[in-house]
Amino acid sequence: MGKLFEETADKFKSYVMPTYSPQIMFVRGKDTRLWDDDGNEYLDFASGIAVCSLGHCNERVTRAIQEQCGKLVHISNLYMNELMPELARRLAANAMPGSKVFFCNSGAEANEGVIKLARKYGNKTGRNHIISMDNSFHGRTLATLAATGRAKYRKGFEPDMPGFSQVPFNDFDALKAAVNDNTCAVMLEMLQGEGGVFPADREYLKKVRALCDEKDILLLCDEVQCGMGRLGTRFAYQKFGIEPDVLTMAKAIANGFPMGAIVAGKKCADVFEVGNHASTFGGTPLACAAALAVQDAFDQDGVLENCEKEGEFLRAELSRIAEKYEFIKTVRGMGLMIGMVLDRPAGGLASLLLKDKMVALTAGETVLRLVPPLTITREDSELAIAKIAKAVEEFAKQEGLK
Ligand SMILES: *Cc1c(COP(=O)(O)O)cnc(C)c1O
Known about the structure:
- The chain has 402 residues and is α/β, with parallel strands linked by helices.
- It has helices at 3-15, 47-50, 59-69, 83-93, 107-123, 142-147, 151-154, 172-178, 202-215, 285-300, 303-323, 347-355, 378-399; strands at 26-30, 33-36, 41-44, 100-104, 129-133, 164-167, 183-188, 191-192, 198-199, 218-222, 246-249, 260-264, 328-334, 337-342, 358-359, 361-363, 367-370.
- Pyridoxal-5'-phosphate binds next to helix 5.
């Protein structure tokens, strides 16, 4: 740890609310690499948290931000903004037919908006209850917290916002039993991120879609983490064979520039009317310029193909490592959202990787979560596998395991 870290940590301790406890400091990034304040180079398999999906300081995005910065940073949504409708068009072109988009600034804000939209949709038939999933994560604002299926995040912030309940994920009978005359929406992540890199079952989703259609219930998909190319398709739902009514996105939408979005298919594209919803910074020109550059990369740089190819390679290699150890239960995930599931907390393994200059995440306590940039090279993947093989061996020794 360098001197800069020490000085910064002192300020952090004195002046920053203690909601985070960073143990390391990065001062520079390029593509799949990060550098700490001591000049050490790291291989980044976290991408923020699935945010910098085109790698750090991607040239297209950096250039777009620099150019837009000198032209117009912000304009109120009271005035026409050239870039915002163009970005909406490009997102909608690849999403559900007839989609319209609302822009905001984060995942929680997108989910908050979708909750409002679902309530407005339900209110015309006197319904306002939303069913979400155990182990889900939808954000830290009060409504998204009430939708989040992890009670520990709500502890101390009672009373819970009314209008939400959870059922076990991938359990259709439980969902069917919970649906009643007051249900206006079902909300889920098609591949749960924070909950442990846990994918929905295709057959389950097909039944959920049919139930929602039958009862005129909206299916809201939170693609904040698993969307935006992470699974190898533009949108996560395209991997599962069904269409949501509305989806939300954020994290990777502008490769690190803060932005969120709601994409609503034709059934609810016009639920919000003038004056119903707003956000000062939503769709600001600078954010749109960054997000448009991300769209260009998806159109022209073979990002999705690379995600599929490297995802397949990594999952196969990780499975080979997993076979050698009893304490590694399985490897799961899709595209470049990969979880190595242990029979114990995975934090120690992530720490060993960090010591070996590789950044990785955990999820749901026992899962090592790997979400590298979608632009990784085969050399990056091979280096990651070598580091993981070494760390797993060390971890086994440390824990006295086979
Ligand atoms: C990160 C995340 C959120 C919250 O996004 P913020 O930008 O932190 O508000 C919501 N849903 C999912 C699935 C996420 O991974």
